[in-house]
User: What shape does this take?
Amino acid sequence: MDTYIDRHIERFRGELESFLEIPSVSTDPDRAGDVRRCASWLADRLRDGGANEATLVPTAGHPIVLAQYVASGDAPTVLVYGHYDVQPSSPDDLWTSPPFRPTVRGERIYARGAADDKGQVHMHLKALEAVLATTGRMPLNVTLLIEGEEEVGSPSLAKFVAENRRRLACDAVLISDTTMLAPEAPAITIGTRGLVYAQVTVRGPRRDLHSGHYGGAVSNPANALGRIIGALLDAGGRITVPRFYDRVRAVTRREAESLRRMPPAEASVQAQTGVPAAGGEAGIDALERIWFRPALDVNGMQSGFTGEGAKTIIPAEATAKISMRLVADQDPDDVAQAFTDHVRGLAPAGVTVEAHVLQRARPWSAEPDHPTFRVAEAALAGAFGTAPVYTRVGGSIPIVPQLAEALGVPILLLGFNLPDGNIHAPDESLHLGVYQRGIRALAHVYRGLAAALYRSR
Amino acid sequence: MDTYIDRHIERFRGELESFLEIPSVSTDPDRAGDVRRCASWLADRLRDGGANEATLVPTAGHPIVLAQYVASGDAPTVLVYGHYDVQPSSPDDLWTSPPFRPTVRGERIYARGAADDKGQVHMHLKALEAVLATTGRMPLNVTLLIEGEEEVGSPSLAKFVAENRRRLACDAVLISDTTMLAPEAPAITIGTRGLVYAQVTVRGPRRDLHSGHYGGAVSNPANALGRIIGALLDAGGRITVPRFYDRVRAVTRREAESLRRMPPAEASVQAQTGVPAAGGEAGIDALERIWFRPALDVNGMQSGFTGEGAKTIIPAEATAKISMRLVADQDPDDVAQAFTDHVRGLAPAGVTVEAHVLQRARPWSAEPDHPTFRVAEAALAGAFGTAPVYTRVGGSIPIVPQLAEALGVPILLLGFNLPDGNIHAPDESLHLGVYQRGIRALAHVYRGLAAALYRSR
Assistant: This one.
């Protein structure tokens, strides 16, 4: 199998480049056609690669690609989840090469979606091709559920999962949409944070006003938004939304142990970002803040005149996109309501405030006790030469808690992004050595899971 | 004279439209050619209208248009100041008709610059034409100084004034760049606020980060900017910059009297803007806040992702444009320094803050005791049917304190913008009845000043 993969790696890369060239930006309504084209491309490649079936399932938004590789007899089933949509590429001028013209520099390929998540989805396709080509048959059933709305909060997915439990029934779930520690240090992720992502709009005068003629006489929506944002975190970095911490629990002994086994995070955060790791709650280690503590971040804001030079206006409105990352056992619906109420309460007189929740996801956490984790450990150790470590991520993968709840089976998060892979940022990249070793590891995971899942029945 | 004006008003309007069609946006480097073209157009029209000389004076930025109408003998001299540059038109989609396609609707002409200040400059040209055409000679010398950098803070003007005191020597200054109360209610302005306009930039990580992977571990520049903005005003609407109010003085008895003579401002501010007049300092009447109290306003801000939907990032930087309006006896240089120090001090750990002052202007205040004010009162009363009131403006006209200091002569601010003229905003307009009556009034001002200034020598 490894030989097959190594022999065909150039063709795989070429195919990956075609995948990355399609600007499947799900947040941008103007890109809806590209998103659909990307779904069709993916279904075609799945059929080319030996899937017994690959269809586009329509949703209210972008289609889901659903594919099946069928094994003979009473084989166990693995459900693979991924997404073919990508984040917006803006600001494009900060990319070294254009975001949708995949470009190899050094050991990496640079493009929007290279790591998140097209590159990792493509590794599964090629691993399955290698298994089929070298053994002549599927050792287990594989259902692939590749959605096109992950970057807009997966609005159609929960409904689809709820209505298709039988179609999605499986013995384990496999997802590659997370990060490893270094090109030779694989990781299995056992925790993700939840999310509430809101848009807050402050409105004042019915149109922009001259800041001289009215300054001091009317409430300024941009000042008000600054005041609101400033009040959302206290001086110690704690979120001021009432009852926010009620369901945030202290780390368990096992969790604390997993933190101790990791390299110091402050230094690596500093190296990756260029800033002192000074965010979040005072007195708590950086990795614990990312893995086990909630966070509140302004993701963007806009008001009034932002061009060159000076325009003297009181803006008619000001808007901010504010996300909260949640940890066990916070409930996104409760947090969304408390946040909305709190923000409205912070509005000064003379302006109105609206808060719309755009996305929400539950936090998720697992214990790596099921035999499937042993299969993944062995496959990753074989391909990368090092045993994987168990990690958590500060990000959110909405499907994980949804599938955990709906299907009640173990979920394996085997991720191949690197910490400096710049996902959601300019110059996103995938390490090509990791791409090749990852395909090998996944091929072994598919073969190993067949045996382990038979045994654990 | 009035008959001449009425007979030629259609031609005047057509010429005004040509003036307004030139997008002389001084803040936009891409419009530098249009600004220059506008200056040439204006000099040509001055020569057409009988100016003995009209030249473009180069500066480090946009040219000054300098023109002279020369009277015979030992006549007094009036210096007229105005500006031919305009504010940016953005957001263009909020204009009912395009900002640089002058359009008449009802009694008004709509275009960027219609009121601020091209329309008012043009009234002077036509008043001078009427005086010359109907009397056959200039009753006094008139120097016109029409600059192209008012909307960028007049960076070249102070130097020009200082270096050309002899050329600008005069017995009185006449400026039309202010607002009247209503189409039949003329005003003479005797106070303007000063200005410090700064750009504040907060920088954090070297590039945008995934808000899941790093949220809670690094300081977020957008959160930090919100915190800074929120801290610049206290809960009572007072500016928190240290020593800010040290040189703000209480209103005099005469000033308090002028406030009492004005209609209630809260209601008119509310009608004009659509918001309760809730800005600024608690417990002080709205008009007093605009005329006699300082203000601090965010004019614009930008950070991170501001497109459709949700992008989960911690932005690398956040920026805001913040203006402060100053009143007697505040010094812009002192305020600029105190603001810059204060803002830097408000930065949380993990981000850096830069503050650049883009514009500064002194506050100005006059007492209407000189005989020139009587001339203006009579001319305005004659043309509009109502005696003018003495008002102040919350805006800044940098040239006024500069000329007051450099020339030591009375300054008459005779303005023809209306409170709902939307200057610095979409759908800027000039009332065409005011345009016609204003030209008449100015023609009488020119004739009356000749006699008054002879007498007061």
Notes: The mean pLDDT of chain A is 94. The first strand of chain A starts at residue 53 and ends at 57. The domain at 2-192+363-455 of chain A is CATH 3.40.630.10 (Aminopeptidase).
